[in-house]
Specification:
Structural class: alpha/beta
Strand content: 5-15%
Order of helices and strands: EHEHEEHEEHHHEEHHHH
Shape: flat
Amino acid sequence: MTSPAGPPPTGDGSEQQRLRLLAVTACPTGIAHTYMAAEKLAQAAASRGIDMKVETQGSIGAENVLDDNDVDGADGVIIAADKDVDLSRFVGKRVLTVGVAEGIHHPEQLIERVRSAPVHTAGATPAAPASGGGKERSVAYKALMNGVSYMIPFVVVGGLLIAISLSLGGHTDPSGGLVIPKGSFWMDINNIGVIGFTLMVPILSGYIAYAIGDRPALVPGMIGGWIANTGDLYDSKAGAGFIGAIVTGFLAGYLVLWIKKVKVPKFVRPIMPIIVI
């Protein structure tokens, strides 16, 4: 989404007229708030005669992607997101990081604030929003929302397949429930839906860990989530479910983050992400 520059505003508008801003919007589900924030930011920029290009990272993937030319010519970048956004491409630019709700409710303020935002440097962690309980809470919240955003498609697809198989292939039994005949086509559809439900827990755990410790944390997070959800592995009749997935996701993420900070000989570094971590 791009906002065309409008007529130059009066007064201090001549300074704003020269501004070229970028924005990235994202929310856990990637359905509504992502696009609402993009629209509000683009409208606020257009009303001030500011060029703005907005990249949306919705449920169908990234749209209106910012390329190198966009970044090179930008005076600032607004990140309005409740999930992890890669900031490595914005090194050397002023970057303002806020929640997606800020992009919806206060787009004008964000345009003013980005002009004095800190310059993003390589390896730096973006500043967390001042409100909402501090940096650690923001990191934990975004990690949780990152896991939820990747889990939702498995929940939706698994639930739909199970519902369709029961409604079209199920028969009532004496107890009043629905039973799908074994070996039937609809039993296969039901089993695929169950697979989706089974995968959603390790996916949640894995992508929570990924948001904290980056790619090396993905595998331990997913394996931890699978173990948490499979009670047979630790002599339990029922798995730990979502709570277990959240716990293992954060444990794996922060453990990997700690291991990455351990100083090791140079020749060991290439194998650290694959073998050691």
